[in-house]
User: Fold these one by one.
Assistant:
Number 1:
Amino acid sequence: MTVRIPFDGLVTLLAEIFRQGGCSTDVADIIAQNMAAAERDGARSHGVFRVPGYLGSLASGWVDGKVDPVVEDVAPGFIRVDGRNGFALPAIAAARAQLVAKARTNGIALLAIRNAHHFSALWPDVEPFAREGLVAIEMVNSMASVVPHGGNRKLYGTNPLGFAAPRRVGDPLVFDQASSAIANGDVQIAAREGHHLPPGFGVDASGAPTTDPRAVLDGGALLPFGGYKGSSIAMMMEIMAAALAGGNFSFEVDFRQHPGAATPNSAQTLIVIDPNMGARGDFAARLEVLVDELRAAGQDRLPGDRRYANRREAMTLGVPLSSAEMAYLQKVARPG
Amino acid sequence: MTVRIPFDGLVTLLAEIFRQGGCSTDVADIIAQNMAAAERDGARSHGVFRVPGYLGSLASGWVDGKVDPVVEDVAPGFIRVDGRNGFALPAIAAARAQLVAKARTNGIALLAIRNAHHFSALWPDVEPFAREGLVAIEMVNSMASVVPHGGNRKLYGTNPLGFAAPRRVGDPLVFDQASSAIANGDVQIAAREGHHLPPGFGVDASGAPTTDPRAVLDGGALLPFGGYKGSSIAMMMEIMAAALAGGNFSFEVDFRQHPGAATPNSAQTLIVIDPNMGARGDFAARLEVLVDELRAAGQDRLPGDRRYANRREAMTLGVPLSSAEMAYLQKVARPG
C-alpha cells in the first residue's frame, strides 16, 4: 500500500533519523533534504532506500557525521575541500556560495573535494546551479564495483557524471548517469524485488556474464555502459575526481573493518561555468532551440522530465512511500 | 604497396597542398602538422584520408583558409574566439598560450570557439596540454549525422570528447572518442574498403538498422554509443560546444549550397586545469597508481598506447602510406 507524506514532513522525519544516527543537526538537515528530494522526484534508488546505508556507515564509525569540512581558496578559479571523512553533501554546501561567486567572476571555477562520502544522486547537486543561470558538471568516483572494458577484475566505481544547463523557458536540462551499465542502487532494488538485469550489465564472482542481481552483488561486478567508450568515461571520473582532488581511487576504498558501512570515502569535482560569457546571444535561449529540435526528433521525454513530473505531483499530493517504508522510518526515528 | 615518408617530408608535402588549396602559409602549416601527426600515429581516418574534404571545403568557398581568428579575453578564466569561418586549428593555436597562462593562474580556464571548422582528431589538441602538466578536456560538435537514442531523425554530430592527463613516468593518458557508436571517417573507410559495420552502429535512409556503411552514408545516420547514456553525452557536447561558444548546433550546419564541402562550421570548447592545485600530493604520480592498477586488471593497452607505438615506429622508419596515397599527394601538390 502506498501512503503519502508531505515533503516537509519527510524532511523532518529523515533529519530526526540522521540525528539519532549520529549526525550533527546541520549535517542531518542537509542529508534529509537531499534524500527527501530524491524520493519526491521518484529517484527511489537514492531515496529512503538509502537510510540503512547511511546509518550503517555512521554506526560502524566509518564516517563522521559531525565533522566540519575545511574549505581552502587555492586560486581565483579553484577551491579545495577536505571533507575530513564526513559526508560530501555538507562539503559541497560549505563551498557552494564561493564556487558560484568564482564562476561569475572568472567565467569558470572548480571545486575539488577529497576525503568525503558521496552516497546520493548528482542531479540535486547540479540542478540548483542551472536555476541560477550557470552550467554545472559533476564527476564523482565511488568504490570498486565495475570491471574495465576488457579487464578481469573490478576497479572503477559506478562513477557518475552529472550535468545541468539552464533553459530560458523550461526546467533545466539535467542528467545524472553512472558510467556503469546500471547503478548499484538499481541492482540492489532488482535483487530485493526479484527482477533480472538486462544482459551485458554485470558479471558474477567468476567473471562470467549474469542477469541475476544477487550474483552481481555477491562477489560479482558491474560492466561499463557502452563498451570501451563508457570505460574511458569511468576512467576520466577516477582521474577528475580522485586524482585531481587528492582523494581515494575507487579501488582504494576499503571498509571491510567497518561492518555495516556502505558509503565510499572518495572524491568529487564540480565545474561551474557562466555560459553567457561564451555565447553570442543568450545561452538559455539557445537551449530552447535545441530542445525544440529534440522534441521534433521524437524525444518526447528530455533528461530530467520524469523527475520534474514526479516532483510536481509529490508537492501537491505528498511524497509516495510504501506503508512498509513509512513504518520503517517511524521505527528508526523513535527507537526503543 | 606501402611506402614510407619521413614525418617532416609529409608535413612539407601537405603544407604545399593546403597552400595550393587556398590556405595562408600559417594555416597550411598548422593543418599539415596536424594531419601528418594523425597519419604518423596510425589515426588513418584523420590523416591523409581527409585531404579531399579540406580541399573540397576550400574550393567551394565554404571555409576561409586565410582568415585570422579574433581572440577575446572575456574574464580571468574565459577566452572567447570567433573563428571567422576559418578552420578550428588556427583558432586554437591563436588562443593556446593565453589559455595555458590562465589555467596556471586561476587553476582552471575555458576556451570557447565558434564559427570554426574542426575536421581533425581531438587528441592532437589535448595531448600537448598534458605534456605541460595540465589536464585538458575538449568538447566539439559537428554536423547532424547521429539519431538521438529513441529519436526518429539525425540531429547530433558525431560530437567527440577528448581528454588528456599527465603521467609522471609514461606518455599522457589520452582518449578521443566520438559520442556516436562509430566515427564518420571510419564509416567512410569501411565503405571504401567494402567492410560491414557491427550491428547497432547505424541506420539507413528509412531509419531501419543496417550494417552497410554505404547505406549509412547514403541518407542514413549513425547511432549514439551506449544507448541513452551516450545520447546524453552527445547532447552535452552540443550544449558545451555550440550553445556555450555561440556557434552552430550540428543540425544548423548546412553546406548544400557548397558542392564538395565536407567540414562543419561548428564550435569547440577546451577546458584546461592545473591538477596540482587540487591534489594532496603529486597528481602525475597518482596517475601511475591508477595505471598500475589498470595493468593489473588486464588492461594491457591503455588509451593512447597504440598511437604512441605507431608514432615511435613512424619517427624511426618513416610514416607509412599506400603508394596510391603517395601518388595522390604528389599529384595534388603539383597540379597541372
Note: Chain B touches chain A through 70 residues (CB under 8 Å).
Number 2:
Amino acid sequence: MNFNELKKTDLNPFFEPKSIAVIGSFREGGFGGYVVVKSLMEAGFDGKIFPVNPGYQEVLKLKVYPSLSDIAEQVDLALVMINARNVVRIIEECGRNHIGSVVVVADGFAEKDEEGARLQRELVEVARRCDIRIIGPNTAGIVNSVNGLNPCPYDAGYYGFKKGPVSICSQTGMINPQAYAYPDLGFGINKICDLGNKCDVNECDMLEYFENDDSTGVISMYLESISDGTRFLEIARRVSKKKPVLALKVGTTKAGAKASASHTGSLAVDDAVFGAACSQAGLLRIDKFSELFEMPKVFAGQPLPLGNRVGVVSFTGGVGVLAVDEGARHGLVLAEFSAENKKVFKEISEDLGTNPVDLGPLIPTVKDFSVFYSRILKAVLADENVDSLFNVVWADALGKNTSAYLEAYEELKEYARKPVVTWVYGPSSAITSEMAKKIEDFGFPVFREPETCIKAIGLLTRYANGKR
Amino acid sequence: MNFNELKKTDLNPFFEPKSIAVIGSFREGGFGGYVVVKSLMEAGFDGKIFPVNPGYQEVLKLKVYPSLSDIAEQVDLALVMINARNVVRIIEECGRNHIGSVVVVADGFAEKDEEGARLQRELVEVARRCDIRIIGPNTAGIVNSVNGLNPCPYDAGYYGFKKGPVSICSQTGMINPQAYAYPDLGFGINKICDLGNKCDVNECDMLEYFENDDSTGVISMYLESISDGTRFLEIARRVSKKKPVLALKVGTTKAGAKASASHTGSLAVDDAVFGAACSQAGLLRIDKFSELFEMPKVFAGQPLPLGNRVGVVSFTGGVGVLAVDEGARHGLVLAEFSAENKKVFKEISEDLGTNPVDLGPLIPTVKDFSVFYSRILKAVLADENVDSLFNVVWADALGKNTSAYLEAYEELKEYARKPVVTWVYGPSSAITSEMAKKIEDFGFPVFREPETCIKAIGLLTRYANGKR
C-alpha cells in the first residue's frame, strides 16, 4: 500500500511554518545546523527558529534547546540533519511533540546500501504511525522566498531571493541555493523543493501543492523517476490548464533508466513515450538542465501569444534562417506582414516590409537610429499577422546604439501586448551581459542562445494553445 | 559552367598577403576603411597596408593612395568596401594592377534585389576575365590571427587574437570579431572567413584550403547552402581523416530551406539527409550556433580517446544520470571500473568503486580533501576500462575546495593521457566563471552546460573512431 493513499495531509506547514526546529550540529562552518540558522536569519524568515542539540547552549545569539520537548511552543516544521541511525528516534520525538512535517536532510538511507534501505523503511513506518509527512531523506531541502524560509544546509554565500512566480521541484540538490546562482537569474523564485529519496512526499504531491499555491505561477520540474505515472499525468493534465508546468525528465534512455534507481510503478521512461505523455498531459517538455531555471522566465511576465506567427528583427540575415529552422521544430512559423502594414514599413524605409527584418544593410542610411528602431519594433508588434517578436540586439563595442535600444524597450514596456523575447550578441561578454540585464530589468526575457529564444516562444505558444 | 571548375587558384594570398590594399572611406568612425586600417595596425599585421581613396591624404599616419595604380609595389590582396555600383570598376583596376585576390565587403548584390544580382553576375564575369578570386560580396571579411591580418570593417573593441588551431568559416558575419567575444573563449583562433554571397570562393574551396593549411588543426563550419553537395562531401570525407570538421547546417527544415536563398545544385537540406551525409563523410555535426565556437575547444588540446567508455566524477548523483542519458545519445557508455582498480578505490574510501563517482556523501568523512581528490581523479584516469573523464566541479561559495581543485588540475596536466572535460557549477556565476577560466588555463576544456560536456566527449570519440 502506498503511503500517499493513506495520508493526503496538506503540505502547507513545509512552506509556511510559523516555527521551525533545526536538529543538527551548530559548529561554525560551511555545512550543517549552524548554516541553516544563519541562512534563515539572513533570509529574514518571518517565523520562530528553535535550534535543538543537547551539546550547545547558543548559536548566533539564539538559545539552543536540549530536545524538542523542551520547546514550550508549537513547532510546525522540523529539519533533521543528524546521523541516519538516529533519525528514526527523532521522528518519534517529533510525533510526541505534535510536529507533523519533517524535512530529513540526513543521507545514508536507501541511496546508500541495504542497511540504509532498512532504515528508510523504518523511517516511513514510524512517520506513518505518528501521522508525520516527510520530505527526503537525502535532500538539500526546501525554500520559500516569500516568507524568508531558506534553511539551506550549505552556505551558498547568499540567503535571500528575488521573489517571483517560479517554483522548482526536483530529485536532486542541484536546484538548491548552494548549486545554482539564483541571484544571477533575471527573474524571481517562489519555492524550491528537493524531494531527495522521496520516501513520502513525491512529485505528485508537489505538483498538487503548487497547483493550489496562489503565489506559484510557473512550475519547473526535474524528474528522475515518477512514483505513480497514472496519478502524475492525471494531475499534470489538470494543473497544465491553470499554470505552465515545465518538465525535464532524465533517465529517458535505456542506459539512463538503469542508472537512475527506478522505483516500482515508475512511468515508462522511454524518450518517445515520455514525449507523448507530456503532449497529452499538457506538460511543456524541456531537454537541458539549464532550461529548468532559464525557460520559466518567458512565462513570468510575458503575455500569451494568440498564435504561432513570429516576427523577427535582427542585424543579420543569418539569424533569420536559424530562427525559421528552430521555429519549425517548435511549431512556429515566420509571420507574413499584412499588406496594410507593409505600407507602414515602406514609409520607414523602402527596403523594409519582409520578415525577418534585417536592419544591417539599412543602418548606414539612417539618420536618427533611435526613432527608426523604435518605429520598426512598433510596426512589427502592431502587425495583425504577428503573434510574438524575436528581437536580436547587437551590442557593439562602442555602444553607439545602446541608448536607442534602451529607449525602445522602455517604450515596449508600455505598448507591447505580445510576447517579446530577445537575444543579445556582440564582441564583448561584459557588454552583452550588461545589455541583457538592462533589457530584463524592463521585464523582457533575454536568453543566452538564439535557439533558446525560439524554443521559449514555442513553449509559450504551446501553453497558450493548451489553455484555449 | 561553374567558376570553380575554371579556376582553382591557391587561396594563400587571402590569408598570408605580404601587402593589402584597403579601398573605402577613411572617415573616423565605427565602420569602414578607417576601422580596417586601425584594426590591421592594432592586430600587428606583418605586411604592408595601402589605403586607397582619391579623397584622402593620410589615415592613422599612413599615406592614402589616390588609386591602385599609384602604388608602386606589388599588392597581394585588396579589400573593397565601396558602393556596390563601383565595385566592378575597382575589380577591373585590380586586374590591371595584377591583384589576384579580392575581398568584397560591400553589400547590395544578389542578397538585395534584381539589380544587385545583375551587378554580382557582372562582378563574377569581370573577375573571371581578370583571373581574380573573390571572397564575398556582402561579407564581414577574413581574419588570420597568425600574421595579425584582421581587417574587420566594424570596430570590435579588440583587434588581436589568442593564437590557436581553430579555423571558422561561415556564410554569415556572425562569426566575425564584431559579433563574437573571441577574447572570452578559452582557446585560440587561427582563421576566420565569412563567405558572404560566395560568388566565387565557397565552402568547398575553404575546406580544401584548411585541409592544406598546417596551422589549422580544427575546422568549424556554419553552412546555409552548399554550392556543390557531391564535391563538398568528397572533400569532407578526405579532410575528416586528417582534421576534425565540425558542421552546423541551418536551413534543414522545409521552412528554413525556403528562408535560406537556396542555390542551384544545393545539397538536399532535409535534416535526416544532412545527418546521414555527415556520418558518411565523417563530418561532426553540431546543432547550435554557440557550438560553432565552443565545441572546437575539445579538439584543441585533448588527446583522442581509445574508446567510448566514460568515467564520471561528481558531487551529486543527479548529474550522473543526466550524463548517462546524454552519453547514450552520443554513442558513449558509462565505464565499469576494472576489478583491479576497484581495490585502489576501496583503499581511498570504502564507499568508492562504482561509476559515476559521487563525492558528495564522502566529503564529511575526508580529512585532507586535496590528497583525496587528486587520488580519485588519478584512479579513474588510470583505470583500463576508462577512455575519457567527465569531471564535475562544485565551486562552493566559500571556496574551500578551490586550491584542491587547482592542484589536481595542475597534476592532471602532467599525467592525463585521456581526454578530460569539465563542468563547473555553484552558487555564484562569478566564482564558477573564474574557476572555469583557471581550469582552462591548465589546458582542459570547460563547458557551460553538462550536456555540452558529454556531447563534446561524444564528438571527440566519434572523430577518434573515424581516424582509426
Note: Chain A touches chain B through 74 residues (CB under 8 Å).
Number 3:
Amino acid sequence: MTMNGARSLLRTLVDHDVDVCFANPGTSEMHFVAALDDEPRMRAVLGLFEGVVTGAADGYARMTGRPAATLLHLGPGLGNGIANLHNARRAHVPMINIVGDHATYHQALDAPLQSDIETLAANVSGWVRRSGSTDALARDTADAVVAARTPPGEIATLILPADVSWGEGGQTVARQPFDRPLAPDLATIEAAAKILCSGEPSAILVGNDIMRDELSLALLDAVAASTGSKVLAEVFPTRIRRGAGIAAADRLAYLAEFAAMQLDGLRHLILLGAQSPVTFFAYPGKASDLVPDGCDVHVVTDVREDGPEAVEALADAVGVTVADARLAPSSRSDRPTGELTGAALAAAVSATLPEDAIVVDEAQTGGIWASPATAGCPPHDWLTLTGGSIGFGMPCATGAAVACPDRPVINLQADGSAMYTAQALWTQAREGLDVTTVIFANRSYAILNMELSRVGVESPGPIAKSMLDLTGPELDFVALARGMGVPAVRPEDADSFTAALERAAAEPGPHLIEAVIPSGF
Amino acid sequence: MTMNGARSLLRTLVDHDVDVCFANPGTSEMHFVAALDDEPRMRAVLGLFEGVVTGAADGYARMTGRPAATLLHLGPGLGNGIANLHNARRAHVPMINIVGDHATYHQALDAPLQSDIETLAANVSGWVRRSGSTDALARDTADAVVAARTPPGEIATLILPADVSWGEGGQTVARQPFDRPLAPDLATIEAAAKILCSGEPSAILVGNDIMRDELSLALLDAVAASTGSKVLAEVFPTRIRRGAGIAAADRLAYLAEFAAMQLDGLRHLILLGAQSPVTFFAYPGKASDLVPDGCDVHVVTDVREDGPEAVEALADAVGVTVADARLAPSSRSDRPTGELTGAALAAAVSATLPEDAIVVDEAQTGGIWASPATAGCPPHDWLTLTGGSIGFGMPCATGAAVACPDRPVINLQADGSAMYTAQALWTQAREGLDVTTVIFANRSYAILNMELSRVGVESPGPIAKSMLDLTGPELDFVALARGMGVPAVRPEDADSFTAALERAAAEPGPHLIEAVIPSGF
C-alpha cells in the first residue's frame, strides 16, 4: 500500500502510544488533517489558539505520563505555544510538537510566513529535528517519541515540511523501546540516610515523580518521623498526590520570607528529584539563594533517576516502612456562609471536592487558602504552574480532562491569568469535558501589587497602580464563558457559590463559576 | 539628581520621540511600572496578553512611522508576542521591545522563569541587546531607538535585567540622529524607465513607503498610463492609501491562480520596494515562483531606499507629472438590503465608510469583497496581514486608534482569527478607543476549507472537516465583547447591519458588530 508522509507519521505516532493530538492547523498542515480520517486511533482535539494546544498537551502528559502530539502552524504558531511549552519544559513532561513548515523548495523564497523555526523550537525543546524526506518521516517520528519519553520526559519538536507530509513513499517502522529512568546511586542514598539519622537538623526536598506516588510520600514521611527531619515539596510541583490517607509533603512557599522560615536552622538539605531552592524572582537587597548559611545541600537524585526507587532504598537504609508514616486525617471545611473571599472559596472547595478530583491551580494570590483547606479532602491530584508563565490553568485543565474522562477536573483560576488563554473554554465545550472553572475575580493583578512593594516600591503613583488594575472595564467571565459555549454563573455569596460548585459537579460537561472577591489578603 | 535605570530608560525613550508604551508587565518590570509616574510624557497602555501588546505597537507604527515601546515579561512574555512581532517584522515597522529579565546575578540560578531570551528575540528582531549596567542603560536605549528607526524600520529588542532597572546611577544621553532612507540609484531608475518606454509588456510591483504616499501612487499611475504598463501593489501591504481622488494600485491576489492572471504575458517586472512575487504557500504540482516564464525581474529599489524619491525620479525619466494620473472616481455602494453575506457587508462598509478612516483588514475569505467595494470611498488607509500570522487585526486596530485618536478605525475581522487576540477589546474599552470591529462570522476556518482542496485533498473525511468547523459550539462574539466591556450587537439583515455601522461611527468609543454570514464564496 502506498502511503503519504502524513499517514506514515500518524501511524507511527499511534503505534508508539501517542493517540491524542491537540491541534491548531493551517494550510501547511492540511495533509496531516486529511490523514486523520485514515487513522481513527488518533483523537484530534481542536484548539482556537496555540497556547491552548500546548498547555493541554502539558496537562494530558501530567496525568498520563505519556506524550500527546501538538499540531502547530509554522514559526508563529509555535511562537504562540511557547509560553505553555516553557511551563511544560519546567514540568519535565513528555510532548511531541509537530510544526508544519513550508515545502522544502519553498523555504528559500522568503514567503510571508517564512521564519526561523529551529531557534524557536530549541528554546523549549530537548530534541529538535527537521524531517528531510517522506521515506525518513516514520523513523524521525519514532525518534521524536523516544526522545520525548526519555526520563523524566522532554519536549521533542519535529518540523514537518509540507512536501514531506504530502509526498508518497511513507514507511512504517517497528515500535521502538523507550528508556527507563536511571537507577539511583545506592551509596549516595546510604550517605543521605546516615545524615538523616545523625540527629542534625535536616530536610528532604522532593520533586518530580516522587510527588505523585502515594507509596513514596508515605515512605518519606516514615523516614522523617523516624529521624526527626522533615519533608518538603518543591514550590510548584508538576503533580502532587494528596488528601486523606496520604502522607503530606509541605510545599515550599512561593514567598521567600516564608520559605526562609521553612528552611531556617537546617544543617542539611537532601534533594530527591528537586532543584536546590532559589527565590522565584530577585529582590533588591535580598538573597536569591534560599539555602541558609551553614546548610549543606546533598543531591541524591536528579529528575532523570527513578525517584520512587530511590525513596524505597532510603527507607530501607533508615529502616522504616509505610507503617511508620503519618497519613493525613480525613477532614473537610464546613460549608462557608456570608461574603465571598479567597478563604470562603477555599472552604467551599474543601467542603465539596469530589473523590479523585484533579485540581489545576492557577489561582495565584486569591487561591493561597485552597491548598491548606483541602489537605484532608478525599484523595486527589494537584497540578501547579511549574514554569511561572501565566495562562497555564485553563489549557492544562482541558488536557487533564481529555486524559482522564472519568475524573472531575477543578480549575482554580485567577482572573488576570485566565485572560491569556481563555479560548480553552471553547475546547472544553466542544469536547464536553468535565471541567469546573472557578474564577477568582479580584479584578487586579493582585500578585503584582504585592510584588511592587516587595521589590522596594513603597508608594506607587496612580499610573503604576492603574497598570495593575483590571476594573476599567470589569471583565465579565460569565459573558466570556457563554460566548464560548460554557454555562456560567456568578454567585453573590458563599452559600450560593458552594451550591454552584455542587451543581457543576453533578452535571456533565464544563462549567464556569465567577467569584468576585476582594483583592489582597 | 540621582535616577534609577528605569527612569533613565523612560526619559531616554521619550527624548527620542518614543512616548507610547504598550505593556503587559510582571514582577521583573515593576520598577519600570513605578517609574511611569515620574515620566508623564510616556503614555502606558495596558494589554491583557502580549500578542495584543506587540500587535498594537505594530498598528501604532504603521500609522505614525514612529516606534512605540512594548513592555514584556521575560522569555514567555516575549514568546506570547512573537506572532504579531512576526507580522511587524514583515511590515518593516519600527518597534522597541523592552523585555524584563531576572536580575543579572539571579540568572545562573535557573529559577522557574529562566529561559534563553536572546534566541527568541533574535527570531523577530533586527537588533538585540542585553543591557549590562544601569549607567549604560540610557545609551543602550538610545541605540535601540536608532536601530528601530533604521529605514524602513526594524524591531529592536532591549533585554532589561531587573537590577539594571532598579539600580541607581541612571544617565541621560543627548538625542541621537536617525538614519534617513538610502538614496535610490538614478542609473537603475533610468534603465527601468527605458524598459517601461520600450512598449514591451511591463508591470511595476510596489511596496513599502510608496503605498502610503498619494503623490507616489499618482506618479506611478501616470507612468503606467503613459507607457502602457500597469502598477501592482504587493499582496499584503503595511498600509495603503486609497479612495476617491487617489490613484489606485491593484493588489496582487492572494490566490496564485488569480495572481498568475495578473502577471500573465509580462516581459518585465519592475520592483519598487517590493519582493519578487511568490505564492503564500507551496501547493503540490504548482510553481511557487509567480514570475512568468520569459519575464525579467528588475530590482529598482528595496525597502531601505527612499521609495517616493525613486518614484519621482522614475516619473521624471518617463516625462510624466501627476496631471497624467487617473485618479479613482468617487463612488459608494448602495445600501445593501436582504441577507447578510460577505458581499452585503462590503456594500454596507462602502456605503458608510467615514472620511479618513483607518481600515484594519483581517477578514480573510469573508472579506474579499470589501477592498474592491471601497475603492471609491472617501480617502482612507488600509492595513493588512503582512506576515500571515493570524490574530493581527484587533491588536493592530487598537494601536492604530492610539496613534490616531481623531480618526475612526474599522476592523474587518474574521471570526477564527479574532479568537487569537480578542483580549484587545478590553484595551479598546479601557482607553475609549474609536474602533468598530466587524466580525465576519462564517463559523469556520473557511480559508482552510479552500486550502484543503488547493493542496490536493479532494474529498476530505468527516474528521478533517470537523477540524475546520467552528460551530460546535458557536462562538458568540456579542457575549465575548460585552465580557470585555465593549458594546456589541448582532444584526440579522443587511439593513440593520448598515444601521449598526452608522451608530457605531456616531458614538465615541469601541463597538463590535457580529455579522453571521455563510461560509465559502
Note: The first strand of chain B starts at residue 20 and ends at 23.
Number 4:
Amino acid sequence: MDDLNIPFEQLVDGLQKVLEKYGMEESRARRCAILFAQADLDGVYSHGVNRFFTFLDYITNDWVKLDREPELLSQLGVFERWDGRFGVGNLNAEFAMGRAIELSREFGIGCIALKNTNHWMRAGNFGWQAVEAGCIGICFTNTIANMAAWGGSEPKIGNNPLVVAIPRKEGPVVLDMAMSQFAYGKMSIAESKNEQMPFAAGFDDKGKLTTDPSTILKNRLALPVGLWKGSGLSLVLDMLSALLSGGNATNKVNDMGTEIGLSQVFISIDPDKLALLEWMDQKADEIINDLKSSTSFDGKTVRYPGESSLETRNRNLKNGVPISKSLWEKIQNEAK
Amino acid sequence: MDDLNIPFEQLVDGLQKVLEKYGMEESRARRCAILFAQADLDGVYSHGVNRFFTFLDYITNDWVKLDREPELLSQLGVFERWDGRFGVGNLNAEFAMGRAIELSREFGIGCIALKNTNHWMRAGNFGWQAVEAGCIGICFTNTIANMAAWGGSEPKIGNNPLVVAIPRKEGPVVLDMAMSQFAYGKMSIAESKNEQMPFAAGFDDKGKLTTDPSTILKNRLALPVGLWKGSGLSLVLDMLSALLSGGNATNKVNDMGTEIGLSQVFISIDPDKLALLEWMDQKADEIINDLKSSTSFDGKTVRYPGESSLETRNRNLKNGVPISKSLWEKIQNEAK
C-alpha cells in the first residue's frame, strides 16, 4: 500500500476541517476528529479514518444528526439513562463514558445506559478513556444482525463489541472484542487477496464451518466466538443494552434498514474511591508477569490485550500515522 | 447408565444428612444440599451430585472449612468486599449474590467482590437466584490455570465461568459459560467412549488445534472460546475478580496446589428500582421471539441460554432427578 506517515496532530486537523465544513461546531469537530484519528494512531485501521467518508455519508443522509447532544432521561445514584438522539456515535460514547467516570468518582461505580445512539467506531477508545482517568472501564454496544444464532441459518444476532479496560502503570489491559471470530472488514481484505482465513470464520450455506471469506461475505454467517457460547454472549449483551437503556435491540435496529439507533452501556469503577489502590498495581503486575512468563509454541512472548496498541501508538506518535496516500488526498480535498 | 429417578426433595434430604454427618449445621447443610441437587435438577450433571464426594474430600482435607461464614471487609454504597474465609463455595456464593440483590433493592445496582472462597460448583445457580428475585444477575469466578494463553504452550489462565442472567416471565435467559470451548469433564466422557470432540477442543503438543480429548486431558491445553478472544476475556475476568476483591488471581490459586482460595464477583441490577419494568418484558419477549423465528440448518428451533435448563427442571420435578444407582447407594450409605 502506498502509505504516508502523517503526524497525529496534522491528521486530526485535517479531519476536523472536514467536519467543520459539514457544519459541526468547532470543539465537537475537534473531539470527533481525535476519536477517528486515535483508532489509526493505535493501529486499529479498520475503525478509524478508513470509515470517515462512510460516516460523512451518514451525516449527508441525515442518519447521523451532527449537532445533537445526549439528553438525560432518568437518574438514580450510580445509574443514569440517556437518549443519544441519533447524534454522533463516537461523541455520544465519549460523553457517556465520561459521565460514568464522574459517577464512579462519587459512588465508586457508575453506569450509563444510552439509547438512540450511532456507531461508536473504535470500541477500544472508550476503554482507553477510562484507564487514562485511572478507572476500570467496561462498555458494550449492540449492532445490526450480522451473525446467525447457534443453529440458525440467517443473521439474527449482532457481533456486539465488548470492552474491558483495566488501568496499570506499566501499560493498561484493554480488551476490545467483537463477538465474531473475524470482522467482515478483515474477511474483505482476505477475499481481495484471494486468501482463506487462518481459522474457521463462518458457516457455508449448508451450515458447515468454513474459512472461505467470499462465502461468508455473501451469506453474512460470520462465526460467533466459541460457537454456541459467543452466540449466547452476543444475545445477552444485546438484551442488557436494550433493556437497561430502553432503546432498540438488534431486531429493531434491523428494522431501521441501516445501522442506526443503537443501544450501549458504559460502566466505570474508580479503584481510588473503592480503596483498591493498595494492591491494584502489584496484583496487576503479578498477573501480567505470570502470563508473559509462559512458554510458547513459537518462542515468542505471550501478549496481553492492549499491549500492541500501546506499542503502535508510541511508534506512530514518533513516525506519523500510516494513511494511504489517496485517502489523505481525499481528506485534504474535502477540507478545502 | 443405570439411572434411578429420585424425587428432588428426597435427593436433597439424602445429601443434607451426609453433610450433617460431616459436621455441617442443619440449615447450612440444607442450603448446600439444595445447591448441589439443583444442578442435577436443571440437567447440569457435571457440576452437581457427581462432584459431591470430591467436595467431601475437600472438607476432610480441611481445604474447605465447613462452618466458616463470610466476613465483611469494606463497604461503600453499592459495593462491598467480603472475605469467604475458605468456607463452603456454593454457600458463600449464594450469600454473596443474595447480598448483591439486597444492595440492588436499595441502590438499583449492587456489587459484591468475594475473596478467599472456594469452588461454587454450578455457576448458573447464582444467575437463577437473581432472576428468581426479579433481578438481572451477573457473576464470574476465577479458577486454577487450565488453559494456555493465546500463543502459550502451558496452562496459565483459568476457564473462569461467567454468568449473565436476565429475568423474563416466559422463562429467563441464563447464560452460564466457561471460557473453555469444552469442559474437561466432557472431554473425559468422550475419551472413555473413545470419541473425538465435535469441534476443535484444544491444542496438541505442537500447538495445532485438535479434537482429541486424550491429548488435551494430558497436556491441559483446552481451547479458549474464540481463540485469542476468549484468552483475553479469561484474563480480564481473572483481573477483575482479584483486583476488586483483593484476593488471589489465577497465578496465586496455582500456588495453592489445589483449587482453593478463589476470587469472585457478583452483580445484581434491580429493574424495578431502576424503573425499567415498563418495557422489560415486552422487549425481552420481542428479542427472544425474533431469535426463535430464525430459519435453521436442521429444521429445529433456535434456543436461548437457559431454555433447556427450565425444560429439564420441569421434567425432573415431575419424573425425579436422574442419578446413577451406584452414586445414590453411596449417598445413602454415607448418610447412615
Note: Chain A has twelve helices and 13 strands.
